[in-house]
Design a protein that fits this description.
single chain; 146 residues; mainly beta; 45% strand; globular
């Protein structure tokens, strides 16, 4: 009987530790997916991210960063896309344990898309990028990196 009680107690403790929520600021840092590397930082009460690397970031020479040529603001079309802050306004929703209401600027087409994310663990982040309805978007999985 003591063994059963001990095993049940240990199971309860391990399950409750898995269900603990990660703090919002644990999203801060560098993240890499198959196609992108970003750095998320706190900006007032929201979170933003700058683009560090992408598969399509450089011209054909592989060294020269592409310009933001499709930006709707003509004044910004000569800036490099490397290092631009392209995710903004991401807010942490503690009730849902996710980050919502973010906007992603796509330098590929000059569009603003909706962005939300969820920390699956300390080193795994899952995001959804969409226009209008989240169901019609794209999921991107990220791994924390240095």
């Amino acid at each position: 009987m003591k063994k059963i009680f001990f095993v049940a107690t240990m199971l309860f403790i391990s399950l409750s530790s898995f269900s603990q929520k990660l703090s919002a600021d644990q999203i801060i840092g560098k993240w890499q997916s198959e196609d992108y590397k970003i750095e998320i930082f706190k900006s007032g009460t929201t979170y933003s991210a700058k683009l560090l690397w992408s598969k399509e970031m450089f011209e054909t020479d592989g060294k020269t960063p592409k310009k933001d040529s499709k930006n709707p603001d003509i004044k910004l079309r000569n800036r490099s896309i490397q290092g631009i802050t392209h995710i903004t306004g991401l807010k942490y929703d503690a009730d849902e344990n996710e980050f919502v209401n973010g906007e992603l600027y796509s330098a590929q087409n000059g569009m603003i898309l909706s962005f939300k994310a969820e920390l699956k663990s300390l080193n795994n982040l899952e995001s959804r990028v969409y226009k209008g309805v989240p169901m019609m978007g794209k999921t991107v999985k990220w791994t924390r990196t240095k």
